[in-house]
């Protein structure tokens, strides 16, 4: 597979790894959450990866910034959902700390990209 330019971004690579971890974690959620928190967390994490890619495919800085902003919003949404999953005992405290550390790092990197697009 030929690697697209967005795939070389560290933030995209980290978001891709987080996607797998969220999918693995949500497999353990109760079945009655399949259309609730499970689906919401999966959609949010996929949104991060896809909006980074889509933004990098756009030609203007404003469009890149727009999609990066959406990715950052999805990162914070996922973080809130991890907190809720922890409150409901769907993920362990240690798993929660690990996942939130990743969302924090991704958000920080996205903030850096946003600053780059503002120049």
CATH architecture: Up-down Bundle
SSE series: HHHH
Mean pLDDT: 94
Tally of separate helices: 4
Taking the sheet with the most strands, its summary is:
none
What oligomeric assembly is this protein in?
Answer: single chain
Counting DSSP E segments of at least 2 residues, the number of strands comes to 0
- Beta fraction: under 5%
How many domains make up the 3D coordinates? 1
Rounded to the nearest angstrom, the radius of gyration is 15 Å
CATH class: Mainly Alpha
Question: What gross morphology would you assign?
Answer: elongated
Class of secondary structure makeup:
mainly alpha
Helical proportion, percent range: over 70%
> CATH superfamily name?
23S rRNA-intervening sequence
Q: Report how far the terminal alpha carbons are from each other.
A: 33 Å
Give a description of the structure.
The protein is mostly helical and 119 residues long. The chain has a single domain (7-118), classed as de novo design (two linked rop proteins) (Up-down Bundle), CATH 1.20.1440. The protein is built from four helices and no strands. It has helices at 10-26, 37-56, 61-87, 93-118. The termini are far apart.
